[in-house]
């Protein structure tokens, strides 16, 4: 993953989707540990980055490819399909290397595939940090639901270096019409001196907002009561008045929507922590809250569509990935990569020389 404005060094993102059945899942992790990136000897090396060969079908191309992986810029996330507390092992009990589970000599040897799943979790726990669950007190919040059954099977791990840049994280309910998983959000904060404010555009959805219509009518009535100047001056002043009003009300409405969504997500999480052993209470209270969350998320998705400026439809669905890429393309236009010195005509491309 690279930033369009080179705001941070390239990040290696590994997305895991483990099988749901125990036997297939154990075999999956056993095979995963054979890849060079996840081999214990690789993580024991002092030198990084390393060059890793990726074989099909892990890539979309038929020929093998190689990537350079920096362990300090690594994120491993996805649907692991197991609960991490099932593998909370005291490292002091280890009788082998740090990547192997404790071996009970008085019990039959476990199958190698089962041990591989445990070794996989040990690898993550020893070298990476979980971003979305580590700061929560009490039981882990569920990330998957099916009917009345809920479990915690999704995680986001990152390197300690990236974890220092972690700004916030959350586990939020998603509209039931979209997915049966929660959305795990991690925000990493990087700084840039080259990012501008960009071009402002009014949100056309404000035309359906009764409060905005009332306000803009009052503002326009007051504006046209003042003595007129030249047509060009009056036109520029009119645009400035409309822009100021639209930004003020638009920000207030957007802030209200985000506050409501956070409040409902927080209330839902509190219900899980308080009534985790009372499924009847959860069945009675959760549907109402989840319905309100879903409605707000639908509204936010419409705003993101407007920000992107284009629609992509297939069977009535909106591509979130396409919208995000379109927004990112627009953000590139907000960045000043270099400036030309007015006297020397030389190119200035650093923060110091551009001032």
TrEMBL record:
Gene3D superfamilies: Endonuclease/exonuclease/phosphatase. It comes from the Eukaryota. InterPro entries: Endo/exonu/phosph_ase_sf. This is Endonuclease/exonuclease/phosphatase domain-containing protein.
């Amino acid at each position: 993953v690279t930033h369009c404005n080179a705001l941070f060094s390239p990040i290696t993102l590994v997305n895991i989707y483990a099988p749901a059945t125990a036997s297939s899942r154990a075999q999956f992790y056993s095979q995963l540990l054979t890849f060079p990136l996840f081999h214990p000897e690789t993580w024991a090396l002092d030198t990084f980055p390393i060059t890793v060969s990726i074989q099909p079908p892990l890539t979309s191309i038929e020929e093998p490819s190689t990537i350079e992986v920096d362990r300090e810029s690594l994120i491993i996330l996805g649907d692991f399909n197991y609960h991490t507390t099932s593998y909370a092992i005291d490292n002091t009990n280890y009788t082998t290397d740090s990547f192997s589970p404790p071996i009970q000599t008085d019990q039959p040897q476990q199958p190698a595939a089962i041990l591989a799943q445990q070794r996989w979790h040990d690898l993550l726990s020893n070298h990476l940090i979980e971003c979305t669950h580590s700061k929560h007190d009490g039981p882990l919040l569920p990330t998957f639901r099916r009917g009345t059954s809920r479990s915690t099977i999704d995680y986001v791990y990152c390197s300690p270096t990236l974890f220092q840049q972690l700004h916030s994280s959350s586990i939020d309910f998603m509209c039931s019409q979209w997915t049966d998983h929660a959305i795990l959000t991690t925000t990493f904060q990087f700084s840039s001196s080259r990012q501008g404010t960009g071009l402002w555009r009014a949100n056309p959805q404000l035309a359906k907002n009764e409060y905005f219509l009332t306000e803009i009518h009052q503002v326009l009535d007051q504006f046209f009561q003042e003595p007129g100047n030249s047509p060009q001056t009056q036109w520029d002043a009119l645009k400035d008045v409309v822009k100021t009003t639209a930004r003020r009300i638009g920000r207030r409405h957007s802030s209200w929507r985000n506050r409501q969504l956070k409040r409902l997500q927080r209330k839902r999480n509190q219900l899980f922590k308080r009534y985790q052993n009372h499924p009847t209470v959860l069945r009675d209270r959760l549907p109402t809250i989840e319905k309100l969350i879903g409605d707000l998320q639908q509204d936010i998705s419409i705003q993101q569509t407007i920000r992107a400026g284009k629609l992509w439809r297939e069977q009535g669905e909106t591509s979130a990935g396409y919208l995000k890429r379109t927004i990112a393309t627009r953000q590139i236009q907000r960045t000043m990569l270099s400036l030309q010195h007015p006297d020397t005509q030389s190119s200035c491309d650093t923060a110091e020389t551009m001032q």
